[in-house]
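idk why but the lab printer keeps eating my pages so im just putting this in chat instead. protein + 8-OXO-2'-deoxyguanosine-5'-triphosphate:
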Amino acid sequence: MTKLQVVAAVFIRDGNVLGCRRAPGRVAAGQWEFPGGKVEPGEDPRFALQREVAEELGIDVTVGDLLDRTPTAVGELTIDLACYGITEYSLEPIASSDHDALSWFAPEDVFAVSWAKPDLPMVRKIAAWRMWRSQNSAVSFENVDPSRA
Ligand SMILES: Nc1nc2c([nH]c(=O)n2[C@H]2C[C@H](O)[C@@H](COP(=O)(O)OP(=O)(O)OP(=O)(O)O)O2)c(=O)[nH]1
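predcted complex ->
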């Protein structure tokens, strides 16, 4: 089975998380995911994520912690998806070359849309951040502890 190493960016703004809808004509069009893409052979995953985000969203980011890494079988492929928190970004993401919609989701609203299957472990963690936020005034990377999700 072919394994694809894919990296994805979890942006947080005011406690909301950025989701992107794959544009018509792309693999898995219409599904929601995080910005990112495939790691090239021999490439550092964090560097790959910076490169993909720059290509797709046209912005520079600082890549923080690995929040989730789960391999998922999708047809004949295994998607080895690693999701990293983005700690700083040069500009607000507003448009993407690969997506036809960008939206910020509160943790309690993440399941309002249909996510790509490999993204579900990360999305479940985000949904669990609601409990964490209810004990704290705001969610941010400074006070989200991924081990609690
Ligand atoms: N970018 C991204 N891809 C994801 C996610 N979840 C998921 O299953 N995928 C899948 C879709 C694709 O099969 C693969 C990544 O492909 P891509 O098309 O985004 O990557 P890329 O920009 O490097 O590809 P390409 O257009 O250069 O061929 O991983 C996700 O959250 N973000």
